[in-house]
Amino acid sequence: MIQEKVARGGLTAIGIAVLLVAWLQMLLIRYMSVVGGLLIVGLAGATVLAHFARAGRATRVVQAVAIVGVLAEIVWLISGWYPLLVTGQVAAVVVAFACLVTTWTARRRDSVADGRTLGRTVLRGAGLLVAGVAAVLSAALLVNAVTPVPVATALQSATGYGNSFEPAKPMASTVVSNTRLINDIKYGDKYPNSYLDVYIAGNDPTVSRPTYVIVHGGGFILGDKLGGDPNAADHTFALGNAPVLDAGYNLVSIGYGLAPRTPYPTPVIQLTQAIEFLKTHGGEYGLDMSRVVLSGGSAGGHIVGQYANIQTNPAYARQMNIAPSLNRDQLKAVVFDSAPFDPRRAGRTEAPALAQDWLFGLCLRVYVGTTTARFDEASVTDHATAEFPPAFIADGNTGTFPDQARDFAARLNELGVRNALDLYPVSEVTLGHTFMSAPSPRTDDYNRRKIEFLRSVVG
To answer: Which CATH number characterizes residue 179's domain?
Structure first.
């Protein structure tokens, strides 16, 4: 009897521990493998304690589900197959609550035999309340593990972003700071948000200028062509690119459909459609489409990276089943601002910012999915060739992807592709994700170096 009570106490403790570890595995994206090892230990311990607790049918349930969880976690650690990770998490939550229900039932039976007290009744009520909250949180985390769509949809609803086949505003031409803005020009019919804005430097469309095409960020689920990336420190966006306008470029800001309703790789297809439209109609706005610079921040950087690979890597264009829309001679350069070049590491920022890890990992799953084949296909770094355009690569150093920027620059160096890597050490200054969208001395340095680089490759 004493042995059973000790085992039940241990079962309670391990049930709580397994539940907490399962939550951590769902939240700490960059440490999933380490936490998975702890979960395996916890589930194995639950099978042993369930045997000594002698809880009858509940013992068999705990042991069977725990074994499933252990096997799922082990095979996931080896193979990386995401459904097994979810299976292990579901099994862990089931085992945790089965352990708690088993011990609670046994203690309730013992308390009835010993006689109820007010203290025990209060403790039982508090325990049920805590268990209810834990059950709700577990359910929410498991739903998000299975599909991040509800969270992404809620974020879009809360922030006002989404998909529409109607323009944000009626198309109009206005002048702001000596720059003519022509907003909401329709470039396509098939996909939502197929509109673009044109910014004519000096309010003079008769002057043919190089074309600087901007693709906004927002984790593929937020943002728009006017406001840019809501994750940025200050998303005044296109007019915030005044240094580019002053350097003699006209700007085009591209809208595209947002995931999950507009899945991968639709934004890349939409960028292709927008470029085709500009090749036909760009002369009306003074756009020189023989001198094009692509620029993308965050998710937008990934989109323009894939697009650039399609223009310069015929095998990749066939793999993506997207026809090139620019000749290599027309695509003069690509500017990357805090871009995730390797989707496999989207949930692993440097220096680590756990909240950013979770958010970026969620956005990745919403847009790209979870399969290894899809990650490999979506990698900008893996598909770059010696024909890739000159690249200006910039990023912050905290809660963002400077390690990926270094790896991409190193890959371009191996290929003999001209590039400039613009990074600051964290020991010198702390710069966040897409820091270059906010006014600061570092942003001024960034703009100066970027314009110098573009002047050297575009003319």
So the answer is: 3.40.50.1820
Beginning with the edge strand found earlier in the chain, give each strand of the sheet holding 331-337 in spatial order. 172-176, 179-186, 195-200, 250-254, 209-215, 287-297, 331-337, 391-394, 419-422
Return the bridge partners of 288, or none.
Answer: 210
Q: Count other C-beta atoms under 10 Å from residue 266's C-beta.
A: 20
Q: Degrees (nearest 5) of the Cα angle 390, 433, 231? A: 115
Q: Which long-range contacts (CB under 8 A, 24 or more apart) does 355-362 make?
A: 355/399, 356/399, 356/400, 356/433, 357/28, 357/29, 357/30, 358/27, 358/28, 358/29, 359/219, 359/231, 360/219, 361/29, 362/144, 362/148, 362/151, 362/152, 362/219
Total tally of structural domains belonging to the chain:
2
| 158, part of any domain | no
| Per-residue pLDDT tens digits for 329-377 | 999 999 999 999 999 998 999 988 999 999 999 999 999 999 999 999 9
Residues 272 and 185 in one domain: yes
- What pLDDT was estimated at residue 340? 97
Contact 15, 99 (CB under 8 A): yes
Residue type, 195: Y
Statement to judge: residues 59 and 178 lie in one domain: no
Q: How far apart are CA 253 and CA 238, in angstroms?
A: 7
Q: How far apart are CA 322 and CA 310, in angstroms?
A: 7
Least Cα distance to 201 among 292, 285, 297, 294 occurs for 285
d(CA 202, CA 82): 52
Q: Are residues 21 and 76 in the same domain?
A: yes
Convert the pLDDT of each residue in 143-156 to its tens digit: 999 999 999 999 99
Say what the pLDDT of residue 262 is.
Answer: 97
Whether the CB-CB separation of 417 and 388 falls below 8 Å is answered with yes
Can you give the residue range of the structural domain that contains 236?
172-458
Residue 50 above 60 pLDDT? yes
**Residues 365, 260: Cα–Cα separation, whole Å:** 9
**Residue 269 within any structural domain of the chain:** yes
User: Are 310 and 345 in the same domain?
Assistant: yes
Of 108, 128, 146, the one marking the end of a domain is 146
Same domain, 197 and 86: no
Chain mean position to CA 44: 33
Among 40, 59, 57, CA closest to 49: 59
